[in-house]
Amino acid sequence: MVTDTIAAVSTSSGEAAISVIRISGPQAFEISARVLHHRHPLNTLSPRTVHLVEARDHDNLTLDQGVAILFHNPASYTGEHTVEFQGHGGLLVTQRVLEAFLKAGARPAEPGEFTQRAFLNGKMDLTQAEAVMDLIHAQSTLAVRAANEQLSGAIGREAEALRSPLIDILAHIEAYIDFPEEDISPDTGAALQSRLDQLLTRTRTLLDSAEQGRILRHGARTVIVGEPNVGKSSLLNCLLGFERAIVSPTAGTTRDTIEEIIQVHGIPLRLVDTAGLREGLDDIERIGIQRTQSELERADLILEVIDASQPASAASRLTLPPASLHRHLLILNKADLTLHPDWQPGPRAIPVSCQNRTGLPELRDAIRSIVLQGGSLSFDHPVAINTRHKSCFERVETHITAALAALQAQAAPEFIALDLREALQALGDVIGHTDIEQILDVIFSSFCIGK
């Protein structure tokens, strides 16, 4: 049980119009009343209403004037008594007001502690708590939308849609194991297998969204590669819309990787400009080229840039394994100098002029098509699981598969129940709890055991 009250600045550091200090815990009103002064006692003020107050230190010296909003438990973000003070956004004044709350009895909040308390008090499940941070770190419109879907409980609802039928199946089997004298017949093998197959299919659908979730949260790693002086850094600058990389006719100017994040049709791309592929002339350049090779191995998308004004015989093309061809896009740069007949534009070969900034809309369309894998990866789906969710759902898949195998082998029901319990535990881990009491509730309410 939480007995202490925490306080922290909830706005980012730096000068701003306002700052927000949040106090949460069982003593939030009492502690705030020692700092925030109003003509009426603080705990008598109307909740969820803005009240003009003065913030004073322990010597009764005025620190700031602002507004206070009171939230009574459980109708607050954390589920506890909470006070928010909105004052002027200066660095010093904000720090002094926070120190006044700490001297009045609050302790500094740990990172994420307000959201952690919201989870512990049942205001959100674990996936929603994770979505708070996803929303804060979102770097694209699609990432914002996915985080908001998760914050609304989309993944929790998907997990619950698996848990409920799994609880029913397990309750039926547990009843047969524990109360054979009640003469409760288990589901027939075919019916039970059908129900488990449906759960397995739904689980695998969720697992399929893991790659989508990774791209939404971290961006598709997009490596720009090619020979020196073909326009790799110019392409990076064109896509970014500002001069990020140095552009020079001198070969070997880019010696290390440069990373930036952009949006293409709402999809986050983590652009990586690399050193030109050639035989390094010195140790530093050779290291840069080695890093280029390393980036290629972990790239989600490869943008190979060539000087398309020159014949194909003059270009040293990238050699990729067949498995990587689906994530490769050829950039026919210097199209303003007229494409050489050796190069033919197509869905995977886009003419671009970084000099005149032409061909960029077509390039963005092609990038979107590749990242979305021709439409097989749908960002319209409301669920995009993260790495932790993936691990949990993989356990669900493993144990349901094992339960099906035990069923087909006509194993004892105890073995089937064991795997289903493990699957249920994994689902509980997704949202942050596993309530075994629910199984008992189903047994006694559905089968009237013991009446």
Can you give keywords for this protein?
3 domains; 42% helix; 13 strands; 17% strand; disordered C terminus; seven-stranded mixed beta sheet; 451 residues; Rossmann fold; Gyrase A, domain 2; alpha/beta; six-stranded mixed beta sheet; Four Helix Bundle (Hemerythrin (Met), subunit A); 14 helices
Overall description:
This protein has helices spanning 28-33, 91-103, 113-120, 126-137, 141-151, 154-178, 189-208, 210-218, 232-240, 283-297, 360-371, 387-408, 413-431, 437-446; strands at residues 6-9, 16-24, 36-37, 51-56, 62-71, 82-89, 107-108, 220-226, 258-264, 267-273, 301-307, 328-333, 349-351. It has 451 residues and is an alpha/beta fold. It folds into 3 domains: 6-120, 2-Layer Sandwich (Gyrase A, domain 2); 154-209 and 384-446, Four Helix Bundle (Hemerythrin (Met), subunit A); 218-375, 3-Layer(aba) Sandwich (Rossmann fold), CATH 3.40.50. The strands form 2 sheets. The chain has a 7-stranded mixed sheet with strand order 3-4-5-6-2-1-7. Strands 9-10-8-11-12-13 form a 6-stranded mixed sheet, sandwiched between helices. Helix 3 runs antiparallel to helix 4 and helix 6 (154-178) runs antiparallel to helix 7. The longest helix is centred in the middle third of the chain and has 25 residues, at 154-178. It is flat.
